[in-house]
Write a structure and sequence with these properties.
Layout (H helix, E strand, L loop, with lengths): L3 E3 L2 H9 L5 E6 L5 H14 L4 E6 L19 H10 L4 E3 L3 H4 L21 H4 L3 H16 L3 E5 L3 H13 L5 E5 L19 H22 L4 H16 L5 E9 L13 E11 L2 E11 L9
Parallel strand pairs: 1-4, 2-3, 2-5, 3-4, 5-6
Antiparallel strand pairs: 7-8, 8-9
Bound molecules: pantoate (PAF).
Length: 299
């Protein structure tokens, strides 16, 4: 199926009116890669035989800081349309910034505040990032009126915040999460991987390597401190490599709330990591279960 391409709000409204329900939305910034195939496939599955998938492709200026890569971000629309065609997408909405923000380059005066979690981790390193993400996701939901919206699992904090926004603002959209996709070498798929030189990519593999080491330590019975130490050892080694990996954060967090968990934590957790390889900032995460042996001696 060749998707209908809508470049304007009016075009979208016309295409949307003809879409059979359920309508499943996949918001993206384009530069679609293997990591997008899992949300697109999940969307197709959730839409079922009779429903339809709507993909948005919009590099959202509101979520980029002044020193970030908004201008440089890849925009290969033709290749993206081909991926959408292969994945059974009915409609692609690819607006320019003025369609989304009529006063562009001025940004909207009213935006969504992400609350306390929005100031941690990604939000601490990228001030305003989640205000920008939540604002555009809210606008895209208003414009496309989906039954379900699918997001990738790599952006774990984004996913938790979107679920929170949907609950707090009564958006009435079901949110589904697609599993994170790793390339064959273990690197989490990301549009920004295209910025990496071969050496930078080799150094970036410490992110997935650290998560694998942590999962291994947890499986061997390490406690939360041991799990973090296993991940940190891999990241420390990469920090003195060439080119060096620069760690931003490594956090063991509650799976649902992403609140940092303490040294005594037992049970499920999510390990989150962010680092720069060269000038490219990368994130990754992995679930793990801490079943550290109880130190109490049972007599
Ligand atoms: O994850 C992304 O690609 C973006 O943050 C999103 C959700 C499409 C909003 O611009």
């Amino acid at each position: 199926m060749t998707p209908i391409l809508a470049r304007t709000r009016l075009g979208l409204a016309a295409a949307r009116a003809a879409m059979p329900s359920p309508v499943v939305l996949v918001p993206t910034m384009g530069a679609l890669h293997d990591g997008h195939r899992s949300p697109l496939a999940l969307a197709r599955e959730l839409a079922g035989e009779h429903g339809s998938v709507l993909v948005t492709i919009f590099v959202n200026p509101l979520q980029f800081g002044p020193a970030e890569d908004f201008d440089r971000y890849p925009r290969p629309l033709e290749a993206d349309l081909e991926v959408c065609r292969q994945q059974g997408v009915s409609v692609v909405f690819a607006p320019d910034p003025v369609q989304m923000y009529p006063a562009f380059p001025a940004m909207p005066q009213v935006t969504v505040s992400p609350g306390p979690l929005g100031r941690l981790y990604e939000g601490a390193s990228r001030p305003g990032f989640f205000d920008g993400v939540l604002t555009v996701v809210l606008k895209l939901c208003q414009l496309t009126a989906p039954d379900i919206a699918v997001f990738g699992g790599k952006d774990a904090q984004q996913l938790v915040l979107i679920r929170q926004m949907v609950a707090d603002l009564d958006l009435g959209v079901q949110i589904a999460a697609a599993p994170l996709h790793r390339d064959a070498d273990g690197l989490a798929a990301s549009s920004r991987n295209s910025y990496l030189s071969a050496d930078e990519r080799a150094s970036a593999l410490a992110l997935s390597g650290a998560l694998a080491a942590a999962r291994g330590a947890a499986a061997d019975g390490a406690d939360a401190g041991g799990v973090l130490a296993a991940a940190r050892a891999v990241l420390d080694k990469a920090a003195s490599g060439s080119p060096p990996l620069r760690l931003d954060y490594l956090v063991l967090a509650d799976t649902d709330t992403l609140a940092e968990v303490g040294a005594g934590h037992r049970g499920d957790a999510l390990l989150l990591v962010a680092a720069w390889s060269g000038s490219t900032r990368l994130i990754d995460n992995a679930p793990l279960t801490i079943r550290a042996a109880d130190l109490e001696v049972i007599r």
